[in-house]
Design a protein that fits this description.
homotetramer, 138 residues, alpha+beta, Thiol Ester Dehydrase, Chain A, six-stranded antiparallel beta sheet, 2 helices, 37% strand, EC 3.1.2.- (chains A, B, C, D), hydrolase activity (chains A, B, C, D)
């Protein structure tokens, strides 16, 4: 699936989620952008942990979709996240997801999140997704 | 800190977060309730992963506060979560947090989340918190 | 499976692993003991991280076996571990595993490891196992 | 520290650990090799989970040492690992560790493990290390 197709699918399947766009799809995975707004922030202007969790999770979901097509039933079975640095105030977040395994039953990927304009990652995550039976290729 | 004190502190420090209440504080940790509403749901009525992540994170934060007092600067350094079962539609979530370690620098806890009315956990999580220097007891 | 059956199975399938015994099997899960010896230690006499990882992993495997019988092909897909306190020198380790989910495809459990004679946990872990197709109950 | 210095330090501080060599140190982190032998294997010839855990852990430790010098007291506080594919029989393992954060108190890194001769990762891991007070740079 191409970036706009993935976004259209996400808009349709998850209408309450907004602010996310797919900036790149390639052989390794995807890059996703979050346009940070007030509802994503904690007092002091820092992006909340659950928001960064959601960004990592959606980036992984987009990476899976980019390979197996519009499968709504792929679900997160597990996730692990480290919050390493405070994101830069007033900046969008960019999440780079590498799809490390796309198996018949499970998919595994990792994500580095950074503030736009900076190279150092603010958070890292790894996610495991369950691939539903109808989408299994064997 | 007692349940109402913890809630008052959370309301003050994190006004954008709502729906959470502390139902119990004891020697092991705390229990926290989330009054589930539409904004917490994905299509199909299931509670979203980021919502369950936030519930686990706040339960751990409340557990830390219950021991060291109103410390706003304790922050999540890492978290791990497994989504095991679909939560029951239309039910509140209850999160039981055990504080496993309260060190000078780091705190570690685990959380089991279940739907009210059911015993089987829908998710499990573990969290690590950083304890800020002023609150270090040695 | 009962404790001695599980141990016999482990001895047969994993002859290079030794020192482990199953001390209890119940409705929640299992308890496993590691008789700590020099090969498990780092300089200074502390039990090594990989040893505690192996103990947690075997405790989870034993918990899965106790429910679905002697299945050699159940394998660890993921694990998460926090090292919280130094184990007591010269003491055996006890690992308490709770089986939190035994699904058709995945099993999830958590483990608390403590030094014999002490109540505070030295490490916590969570593990996810893949259940092979032949053993799937539906 | 350079590769041979790191290996000499590891040999001195952890004499029971063997088979590991540092193949590269650069701005991103390190690469470490494990010369796989019988004691690392489960029946069927596959490298054991605890062995891959140890490899990831040592790669991270080497990455930390490469930046802050010979600090024996840096210890693993947490680790997360996914086993994705069976390693190739009879092949060495190579672990690539990226040091993502080297803070005053905590260091965070991730690791991809692959079989020599293959590009696809057999396992991924993330590790958190505690930096002892004397080595803190502020």
């Amino acid at each position: 699936m191409q970036p706009q197709e993935i976004e259209a699918f996400l808009d349709r399947e998850f209408p309450q989620v907004s602010g996310y766009s797919v900036t790149r799809v390639d052989g390794q995975g995807v890059e996703m952008r979050l346009a940070v707004e007030d509802r994503h922030l904690r007092p002091g202007g820092t992006v909340s942990g659950p928001t960064m969790f959601e960004l990592a999770d959606l980036a992984m979901y987009a990476a899976v979709l980019s390979r197996i097509g519009p499968v709504a039933l792929a679900v997160t079975t597990g996730a692990n996240i480290d919050f390493m640095r405070k994101p830069a105030a007033g900046r969008d977040l960019l999440a780079e997801c590498r799809l490390l395994k796309l198996g018949n039953v499970l998919a595994v990927g990792d994500v580095l999140i950074r503030s736009e304009g900076a190279e150092v990652p603010v958070a890292r995550a790894s996610l495991t997704y369950s691939i539903p039976p109808k989408s299994r290729r064997n």
